[in-house]
């Protein structure tokens, strides 16, 4: 009886009924009727888009072997033992295997990153961790760095740092002490410092220049038009000569707090064909026509207080914002002028959508302030949340830019898909430059 009951229930009461055809999903309707059932859906683009499909495979010239080897493990062990950070690991440098294994000269080295492993800025190309309040610098870091460098037996070392906008001097004093510690243990070592912009503080720049370093490097990163897409807005300062006279008791961060200025986005609205991003105390406009919202060259705030109007004039505009490009140039220029014979260096990433004319303009601006060395390399997206790659520049085009750079006056140009600002390419040439400058300074002193 139970069997019969079950059999009856399983039969359809409407044997001739046919269900209506299912409507295509939004995905099938969007992609067209030819979409096969077993085909993969379009990939989701996570990072800010600059024009290229992030799922396109890298060309063969960008492929590197996985880092390994005896010397690689030795360097890794010494860094771990001394609690040191490297930009090689934090920024996911593709050349880590070559440098840590010794390269062509067999001498293993790494680019030390001082002031901790956490940056106060969040540039959209960089994989280094970020935080508003990173841990205080390790007071033993300068001496541990010197110990590691001496143990490697190198005669040329690159030291870099995270941005530390939370420190009064931007970390320049700690950075300078690291250089001095290395020079004390090994006086003939050549030190290249790849620095932040210190928020444009020339005193911080001078502190580091006078520490005994041999090469002052600061990266301009990209062409002028793309600065606000690529770099953190805090790389462009609020000028003291316009807003508030700097004195011995005030700092830029204190002044920003007093004016209730913050980079936090609090609301958006549209105005005709332009998008207005309202920041707390600032106003930045961006074009809706851009594939990625980008702050324009002028970021302004209407001066509202009566006191400010009396001091600056009724209805005055306070200019903020996209000064990253000019600030980087001013830092490099001040470093060049702060010490006789100082070698300066900068770097540009390619593949972010720059044009040839824009790149030539940036190279000309760097030469105009006396920059000696330039490195050009391919931008690679470190994670899906970072800027996507616009295009992959061929090795032949990199060779062209090397020739062009040297033709307009750079003393040396390292240009290639895997070249990085702290890469060892051209290290021998830079060593020769440093030795020549040292010999020249010695002759000047004796005379």
Automatic annotation (TrEMBL):
Q: Name one GO molecular function term.
A: lipoate synthase activity
Residues reported to bind [4Fe-4S] cluster 2:
119, 123, 126
The metabolic or biological pathway listed in the UniProt record of this protein is: Protein modification; protein lipoylation via endogenous pathway; protein N(6)-(lipoyl)lysine from octanoyl-[acyl-carrier-protein]: step 2/2
**A Pfam family this chain is assigned to:** LIAS_N
Q: Which reaction does it catalyse?
A: [[Fe-S] cluster scaffold protein carrying a second [4Fe-4S](2+) cluster] + N(6)-octanoyl-L-lysyl-[protein] + 2 oxidized [2Fe-2S]-[ferredoxin] + 2 S-adenosyl-L-methionine + 4 H(+) = [[Fe-S] cluster scaffold protein] + N(6)-[(R)-dihydrolipoyl]-L-lysyl-[protein] + 4 Fe(3+) + 2 hydrogen sulfide + 2 5'-deoxyadenosine + 2 L-methionine + 2 reduced [2Fe-2S]-[ferredoxin]
The cofactors named for this UniProt entry are: [4Fe-4S] cluster
EC category name:
transferase
Cofactor binding remark: Binds 2 [4Fe-4S] clusters per subunit. One cluster is coordinated with 3 cysteines and an exchangeable S-adenosyl-L-methionine.
List positions binding [4Fe-4S] cluster 1: 88, 93, 99, 422
One GO CC annotation: mitochondrion
A GO BP annotation = protein lipoylation
The record's keywords, sorted A to Z, are: 4Fe-4S, Iron, Iron-sulfur, Metal-binding, Mitochondrion, S-adenosyl-L-methionine, Transferase
Q: Specify the domain of life of the species encoding this protein.
A: Eukaryota
InterPro entries given for it? Aldolase_TIM, Elp3/MiaA/NifB-like_rSAM, LIAS_N, Lipoyl_synth, rSAM, rSAM_sf
Regarding protein family, the annotation reads:
Belongs to the radical SAM superfamily. Lipoyl synthase family.
Q: Which HAMAP family match?
A: Lipoyl_synth
What name is this protein filed under? Lipoyl synthase, mitochondrial
Species of origin:
Striga asiatica (Asiatic witchweed)
Q: Tell me the organism's taxonomic lineage.
A: Eukaryota, Viridiplantae, Streptophyta, Embryophyta, Tracheophyta
């Amino acid at each position: 009886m139970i069997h019969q009951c079950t059999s009856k229930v399983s039969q359809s009461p409407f044997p001739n009924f046919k269900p209506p055809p299912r409507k295509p999903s939004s995905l099938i309707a969007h992609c067209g009727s030819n979409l096969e059932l077993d085909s993969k859906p379009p990939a989701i683009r996570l990072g800010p888009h600059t024009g290229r499909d992030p799922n396109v495979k890298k060309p063969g010239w960008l492929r590197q072997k996985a880092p390994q080897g005896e010397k690689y493990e030795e360097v890794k062990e010494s860094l771990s033992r001394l609690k040191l950070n490297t930009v090689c690991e934090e920024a996911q440098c593709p050349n880590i295997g070559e440098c840590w294994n010794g390269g062509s000269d067999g001498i293993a080295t790494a680019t030390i990153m001082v002031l901790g492993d956490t940056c106060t800025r969040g540039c959209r190309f960089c994989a280094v961790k970020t935080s508003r309040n990173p841990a205080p610098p390790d007071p033993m870091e300068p001496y541990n760095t010197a110990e590691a460098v001496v143990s490697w037996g190198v005669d040329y070392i690159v030291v870099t740092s995270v941005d530390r906008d939370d420190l009064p001097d931007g970390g320049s004093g700690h950075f300078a002490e690291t250089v001095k510690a290395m020079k004390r243990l090994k006086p003939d070592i050549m030190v290249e410092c790849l620095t932040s912009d210190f928020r444009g503080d020339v005193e911080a720049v001078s502190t580091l220049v006078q520490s005994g370093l041999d090469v002052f490097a600061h990266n301009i990163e990209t062409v002028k038009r793309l600065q606000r897409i690529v770099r953190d807005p805090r790389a462009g300062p609020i000028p003291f000569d316009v807003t508030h006279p700097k004195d011995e008791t005030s700092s830029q961060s204190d002044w920003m707090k007093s004016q209730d200025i913050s980079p936090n986005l609090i609301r958006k609205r549209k105005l005709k064909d332009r998008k207005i991003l309202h920041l707390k105390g600032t106003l930045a406009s961006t074009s809706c026509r851009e594939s990625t919202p980008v702050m324009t060259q002028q970021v302004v705030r209407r001066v509202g207080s009566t006191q400010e109007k009396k001091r600056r004039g009724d209805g005055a505009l306070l200019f903020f914002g996209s000064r990253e490009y000019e600030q980087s140039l001013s830092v490099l220029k001040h470093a060049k002028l702060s010490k006789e014979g100082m070698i300066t260096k900068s770097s540009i990433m390619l593949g972010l959508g720059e044009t040839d004319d824009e790149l030539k303009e940036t190279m000309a601006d760097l030469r105009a302030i006396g920059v000696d060395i330039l490195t050009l390399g391919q931008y690679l997206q470190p994670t899906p949340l970072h800027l996507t790659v616009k295009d992959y520049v061929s090795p032949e085009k990199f060779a062209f830019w090397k020739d062009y750079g040297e033709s307009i006056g750079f003393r040396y140009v390292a240009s290639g898909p895997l070249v990085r600002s702290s890469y060892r390419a051209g290290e021998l040439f830079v060593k020769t430059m440093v030795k020549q400058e040292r010999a020249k300074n010695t002759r000047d002193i004796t005379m």
